[in-house]
Amino acid sequence: MKEIVKTVHITQKDESELTDAERKLIDAAKSSTYRSYAPYSKFCVGAAIQLEDGEVLTGNNQENCAFPSGLCAERTALFYTNAQYPDTPVAAIAIAARDSNGEFTSVPISPCGSCRQALLETEHRFARPIRVMLYGTEGIYFIDSVRDLLPVGFDSDCLV
Ligand code: THU
Known about the structure:
- By secondary structure, the chain is an alpha+beta fold.
- The chain has a single domain, classed as Cytidine Deaminase, domain 2 (3-Layer(aba) Sandwich).
- Helix 3 links the parallel strand 4 and strand 5.
- The model has no long low-confidence stretch (mean pLDDT 98).
- The site of tetrahydrodeoxyuridine has 14 residues, from helix 2.
């Protein structure tokens, strides 16, 4: 018998420790929460994607009265980005959320399973790790790659 252990390495920073580029992406994710459409959950999520060339694109959750027809912030941002720039690798994604009181969450939220899978597709597509930044008022988490969030994930290599 063999045991395989996969660990995820998370770096936590305070706002004062952010680089200018990190702050810019996180601020874009935070701003995007104010444009989310979340009348049902009242949980407003924003995502900001940075391309390899530095361009930043944002998205937010878009809910629907037929609940499953809505879409998370991460996939809204990712699909828009891939639709506009199909040949440019994604370098990083920042995610922030405000609760039903309008306050940013103290603990970061992290992408749901479907968003992780969609992000993994893009990471695999460009063969480039996507850095993940998860904003919380009490600390910001940094994870080097989406693969770390989906350690035994399914990608196109599995289709052979
Ligand atoms: N949501 C996101 O947009 N991203 C996440 O990472 C988690 C959840 C949205 C979906 C729904 O509109 C609301 O947050 C409550 O689940």
